[in-house]
Specification:
The protein is of the alpha/beta class. About 30% of the residues lie in helices and about 20% in strands. Bound molecules: guanosine-5'-diphosphate.
Length: about 400
């Protein structure tokens, strides 16, 4: 925390830290007991005195130091008696946490602190013991798109406050950011994306689209929101981001952003144009939105949730086989010479994206277009909107199969 930094990453980190201080019930101010007190420690102490609810001072790296000496000088910060700890050696930590919890409880009587984990059941395997409901995991969402498409605006709209900073300044490396948020009582985790940053910063002009970060974010998420600037149309860069998403097999929702700025008379046409240009992503729902005016964000997030359910759904073998047979009855795979591919049954071979494995004979003769037909058929019947779907064909070795004439 560098409270006096005015520019660059340090200033952005300071903003994020201030946010955390305001939100926290208690702040642990960690100091370096080897280095001793610095003027900056005083600055931080002043800031904490102004804005923190409760503060505990922890003087770290004090292993091997006499208790009376360790941390004594930090009394001068005026934030109470310092606790000496050694994080590396685990010394003084339990006492520090106990002290913090007591302080919070005293300050807010009746506050319910989390219960310690329940002891394991004395009767493991007891059929009457109710199985604990598995908590719903947050859906990991990545907002990707080219610079200026409105990613930061959308993210801040979803988070409901300005708490996002990015570390895209050249020369800095940071772990990727993941922020949890709730939208309509559903939990999501936002994973880091190229271009997450605040507006109006000096380095904005030199920011480049980062392929590596985009790929990481796509890799890291369950569902991608592809942000497209509805005013600019589909650019080459949009196309390449879309193809990364397609290759990754991630679930996808497309947002046509800045819809507020599209003249109402043109909207129907513009939407059609996007659908045509993004035809290869037709498995994904497309939503015109306005991140700036916070329009249609609910429908967008509902599609994110639906895409996630589709990507992780369990498809039963009897159902898949039934749909397969119906598909064949509706339109049989075309003959290839004297051979007609025979499909017998289908089962699920994977999730996220769902893989449907079809077994039969001479399936190497099935054309790509017939595979696409099957994909569409399964997608419609099994409500798999929002996720890519992979069809795998496996021919069993059949020694009696008719030989293909040369
Ligand atoms: P990023 O580079 O993708 O993070 O894009 P930003 O969120 O920084 O937005 C780029 C510019 O587009 C800013 O000037 C935003 O105010 C503007 N913008 C973002 N969303 C919308 C929107 O829904 N409508 C309009 N009209 N402008 C928007």
């Amino acid at each position: 925390f560098e409270p006096v930094a005015a520019t660059g990453v340090a200033a952005q980190m300071a903003r994020q830290t201030r946010q955390a201080i305001v939100e926290a019930d208690l702040v642990i101010f960690v100091l370096d007991g080897r280095q001793g007190m610095t003027p900056r420690d005083q600055d931080i102490a002043n800031e904490l005195r102004r804005s923190a609810r409760l503060v505990r001072v922890a003087v770290n790296k004090t292993e091997g130091m006499a208790q009376a000496v360790a941390g004594a000088e930090f009394h001068a910060l005026g934030l109470g008696t310092p606790s000496s700890i050694s994080s590396a050696h685990g010394e003084g930590i339990v006492e520090l946490i106990g002290d913090c919890l007591d302080a919070v409880e005293q300050a807010q009587p009746g506050l319910s602190l989390p219960e310690p984990p329940a002891a394991p059941s004395p009767h493991p395997g007891d059929p009457d013991a109710a199985a604990p409901a598995e908590p719903e995991r947050p859906i990991r969402v990545a907002v990707v798109g080219r610079p200026n498409s409105g990613k930061s605006t959308l993210i801040n709209a979803l988070l409901g406050e300005e708490r996002l900073i990015a570390f895209d300044t050249p020369g800095t490396t940071r772990d990727s950011i993941a922020v949890d948020f709730e939208f309509e009582k559903r939990r999501y985790t936002l994973v880091d994306t190229a271009g997450i940053r605040r507006r109006g910063k000096v380095h904005e002009t030199i920011e480049k689209f980062s392929v590596v970060k985009t790929l990481q974010a796509i890799e890291d998420c369950n569902v991608c929101i592809l942000m497209i600037d509805a005013i600019d149309g589909v650019s080459e860069q949009d196309g390449s981001i879309a193809s990364y998403i397609l290759d990754s097999g991630r679930a996808l929702v497309i947002a046509l952003n800045k819809w507020d700025a599209v003249p109402p008379d043109n909207r129907a046409w513009v939407e059609q144009e996007f659908a045509r240009k993004l035809h290869f992503l037709s498995f994904a729902r497309m939503h015109p939105i306005s991140a700036l005016k916070r329009k249609s964000l609910k429908t967008l997030m509902r599609s994110v949730t639906a895409a996630h359910s589709a990507a992780t759904s369990n498809l039963s073998t009897p159902k898949l086989t039934r749909f397969l047979l119906a598909a064949i009855q509706h339109q049989a795979p075309p003959r290839s010479g004297p051979v007609r591919p025979k499909m017998r049954y289908a089962h699920q071979g994977g999730q996220n994206p769902p893989v449907i494995v079809i077994h039969g004979s001479a399936l190497n003769k099935v054309s790509e277009s017939y595979k696409r037909y099957l994909e569409g058929w399964f997608r419609d019947r099994m409500a798999l909107q929002g996720t890519p779907l992979r069809i795998e064909l496996r021919s069993g070795a059949n020694p009696f199969a008719p030989k293909t004439p040369r």
